[in-house]
Input
Amino acid sequence: MSNVLKGTIARYGIRPDTRSVLLRAFALLVCVSIWILPAGAQPAPAKSAVATAHPLATRAGEEILAAGGNAFDAAVAISAALAVVEPYASGLGGGGFWLLHEADSGRQIVVDGREVAPAAATRDMYLDARGNPRPGITMDGPLAAGIPGEPAALVHLAKRYGRLPLATSLAPAIRYADEGIEISRGIGMGLKFRAEAARKSPAFAALYLPGGEPRQAGATVRFRDLARTLQRLAADGHDGFYRGDVARRLVAGVQAAGGIWTRDDLAAYKVIEREPIRVQYRGATLVMVPPPSSGGVVLGDTLNILRAYDLASLPSVERKHLTIEALRRAYRDRAMYLGDPAFVSMPIERLLSPWYADGQRTSIRLDRATPSDNLPGIAPDTGGGTNTTHFSVLDKAGNRVAGTLSINTWFGAAFIPPGTGVILNNEMDDFSIKTGTPNGFELLGTAANAIAPGKRMLSSMSPTFIESPRGVAILGTPGGSRIISMVLLSAMAWMDGVDAEQMASLKRYHHQYYPDVVAYEEGAFTADEKAGLEARGHKLELSQRSFGNMQVVTWDRETGRVDAASDPRGGGEVTVY
Output
């Protein structure tokens, strides 16, 4: 281009001083044009794809995309729909993390809608006079609930990133709640498991346990209070949930049952946007969620340990042994260091550095497992769940969302404030209520994750993008403390060349530092692998139920193929069109 400009200058006899100015202007024009082009823009996929844990949630996302919405509008619709159709796993009374990619700018961001501790929360609020944990208090009833973040996140997504009005994106969920849904097998199982706690909440019991007995699969239930709460959110946005009549009902119900929420707690809630964690591994970039999710740090820590090994050349038992040993050390770091970045200084740069991984690797032996007690750090005080959900969305412009949402355990706190239809979370159990005391998922913690007013509890939710020359994978799963290991195994499989369906159905195994056991699904290890791992000193424990409910969308940039898969362990559904 500069030669063309020089020829033009010579042809028309432009003076040297003018020539110099023109050349500088042209150079500036080129620089500006490069600068304003979307830095991360990529060719657009030929199709959209949605993968969620429930067919009706998938249809809600498809409906919004067909109405002209983008992936972010679809994420709002799916999140709200899951609150209705999968109420044991997520909802307006909980929170989550939404990992976003904007196609036109290449910008990637994490929308943190994690719950926060109420202002009246205290460090030792769940301990008795002797300093011992009070049984069940972090799990059942409104005292176990943090201030919800999902409603605020849905408003934020619609306003900041969506094309459609919030009311349009919430319409499918409102319709499902108002018209009613069929009680699924999962809802029925969860009700049986949580019936004793649920009977203490009159509003919950009236909806789900008429006559004192859990509703059976196949029954149809209408959620009229929840429909009205969603309508209020659609009409008034943030204030429709966190102020006004809904907030008044939430607080009145919580306080009447012994909880500590106030209307100021609700009014003060804010979504936080965070920069993702990015880690390079085998030519791919993993884009992950930072604290207060532990997912990105633990995944990055694990992969950095493994990067020095030529895993493809090793026997399968050695590959799995090394993966278990890397997870052991990364989960130990989770217990020691991670929490809410607004409250604790974390050595994240160190934890994700190559030289730190080099140090971690020096204690790993190919022929022996390292007992967790032999690693320096926290020890348990000697005195896995599926109750989260995930969805993945890709639109035809290339926008994408990986969203993981939760109310923690089955039906959260098993409590509904009367007149709201909102099932409250029991995410306060994700704090470390006492150093060395395991939480409901047997995870340990220290003061870094101690309770404090306004603090966000540490999470394992791990919505993830994998970007490589091959293309893009969008994935995540429920599963409590096992989420991170499930995402790890599927990410490594993606880099080995598997497709979306294989990623979602992969047999899984897990180690989390404490307890010092390798939990595994039937089929995760061959007989020879089990024998080899046990010979190295690993204690294997066959899980009595399956791990997780992964939802995957993939896009092969070379072929243009868009694919999606829903975990065969669950009852989800995908659409690609």
User: Anything to note?
Assistant: The first helix runs from residue 2 to 11. The chain is about 35% helix and 15% strand.
